Amino acid sequence: MALSATEIILGSAAIALIWALIQFSIIKKIPVADGSNTESSALSGASGEGSDETTARLNEIYTAIYEGADSFLKAEYAVCNIFVACFSIIVFLLVTWGTDYNVARGGFTAISFLLGAGTSMASGYLGMKVAVFSNVRTTVSAQKAGFTPCFNTAFRAGAVMGFALCGLGMLMLYVTMLVFKGYYPEPEDWRLLTESITGYGLGGSCIAMFGRVGGGIYTKAADVGADLVGKVVHGIPEDDPRNPATIADNVGDNVGDVAGMGSDLFGSFAEATCAALVIGSSIGVSGGWDAMLFPVAVSAVGVIVCLVCSFLATDIAPVRSEDGIEKALKIQLISTTILMVPAIYFAAEYLLPESFDLATAVGEGTVSLEPWMAWICVSAGVVGGLIIGLVTEYYTSHSYAPVREVANSCKTGAATNMIYGISLGYQSAVIPVLVLSIVIYKSFALCDLYGVALAAIGMLSNLSTGLTIDVYGPVCDNAGGIAEMAELHPSVREKTDALDAAGNTTAAIGKGFAIGSAALVSLALFGAFITRIRASSDDALFKDGVNMLEPLTFAFLLIGGMIPFWFAAMTMKSVGLAAMQMVMEVQRQFDEKPHLLDANPTERPDYDACIAISTQASLREMIAPGAMVIFTPLLTGLFFGVHAVSGLLVGALIASVQLAISMSNSGGAWDNAKKYIEKADANSELKGKGSDIHKAAVVGDTVGDPFKDTSGPALNIVMKLMAVLSLVFADTFYAINEGKGIFNLS
């Protein structure tokens, strides 16, 4: 029986949500109780009294982390709700006015914006809840013999987030399209349908911006404060319960690395799909509804492939030793990439007609495409993403020479460590940029700008697996912190550290995927913007492409290139300001309660004071960077016109890619150089933990924290958000003096 695109997409979304629920139900069966005295434990037996005390402590820590994360996200989303309500009115009014008072288009765009924002917030909140729920259960599982129970718990926690987000994102997007199709039933009108759905990507990206920046400031303020005062000044271990900032640090992992990252990647999925649908809307006329929906179907196929491959990690070849952890995670990425290539081929042959026409982005007429061309473009994105990820691993894992060079540079102090780390970040951008260039050229040559959009979809096709691995890392990190704070047997922390170390490496691979896909998504959105301006102007503008030698375009090209640096400066400074407050608060508590530093302290630190500092600072500091990114393209288009916006978007894209890669990889390298030194013996050249070499590495890691977890990842959203916002308001920009803006400059 032949399946339609509707059945494939809705069926895949349902399977994803059911699978996420199954994984959650397995995790839920693990009780939050000390397992150190069970027969299956690898640890020494414990008395019943000690077990009860440890169980109470585990629940106390779990509750503190949950309440901290929950209160922050509710406060953050309260701010976001106000923004979404106000900005949806702006979307409705400007789009309605720009489309010659077409209330339907303005209303549909505003509705899709609200749905995208709501889905993004739901994804972030769900991710936080699942991560916090699973952190303590990973700690409990680490008390059992072997690595299989704790690895599977953390992996399944990631799978809940990965499959739930992809399923929910596809379901909301496609149901919205079906509703809009009731108003636009004719293929000739599907261009208007796809343009209305762009609000979905804008809503997701706006929330991702606030989530990434707010969550990033929260987690790194706590992390930097805890490290500087705790490890560098007083020499106490990471996550030591005597450190007042340790609960805030663990809360930050959930609101930044999980909730913020989830919203970010949801935005990438929504924007890539919207761009492909807008550029390929003309396919619906010649190929029908199923052919036009091919980009969404690719994501649907990706969910099934990721689900099948997940059995490799948990059942077929489960993790039995420390050496198998990183191997299992990398096999997930490689196996999904290998399986996606033939799966996409069959999807293209099944859904696309033997030949279909696409309106060209430059010039008149159409280009005739065949299914194998679309397959090549998507496959180029899939394989290109894996290459970028593996290159990222090479530059950020201490298994390879670059990070070991950074570690050795710590022998002469923090300054040389900083020099080596920054140099590594710059160098690490070379190969990914070359790979992206090849993917863009080949995709564009085969299928015009639609090919670039398909490549972006391809790079995100195994998003379920990517999210699984991304969430796995913070879950293991938190599990180690809980083990330390609950004062469990040292071997539990050793086990969670082994899980976390592999997670750090694969998380770096995931960031490579995210940056690469963001670049392709941004270019695709730029192409969709040009396509929409051409349609609005009846080919009066951009018929022959964008002329970068136009004075206004070239001027804003430079301004666009400046935006990522301005944004990075604002977010880095925000982390610095919040971290200074955190350092002073932690030191104040140590000064006022000197017995906190005793081996067995009789006093308890005030964790809530540090949580309050991170919460207030992140909510305050996330407004300015977010507003700058959102209103820069909007005001540019309104006052200077579409030529200025074109230059702005290209400049921001080019600069953001290089800066995001270099910042993320520098931060990752500093982090793993520190871990490499910590693994060294005290009699070795690197001297190990507590040495001056280690302190120099901690300084580098501290500087690298906002590089890799605040500014670097948020730059993905900078280039995407500016592009999708310009796409949504394209008709409005053209309506003002035929695209010349209020100032009417030429």
UniProtKB/TrEMBL annotation:
* Cellular compartments annotated: Endomembrane system
Uppermost EC category: translocase
Transmembrane ranges, per UniProt, are: 6-27, 78-98, 110-133, 154-180, 292-313, 333-352, 372-396, 417-441, 513-531, 552-572, 628-655, 717-736
Keyword annotations for this protein, in alphabetical order, are: Ion transport, Magnesium, Membrane, Translocase, Transmembrane, Transmembrane helix, Transport
Q: What is its main location?
A: membrane
Pfam families to which the protein is assigned, alphabetical: H_PPase (PF03030)
Q: How does it sit in the membrane?
A: Multi-pass membrane protein
Lineage at the top is: Eukaryota, Sar, Stramenopiles, Ochrophyta, Bacillariophyta
**Assigned EC number:** 7.1.3.1
Q: Which GO terms describe its cellular component?
A: endomembrane system; membrane
Domain of life, per UniProt, equals Eukaryota
Record-given protein name:
H(+)-exporting diphosphatase
Q: Name one GO molecular function term.
A: inorganic diphosphate phosphatase activity
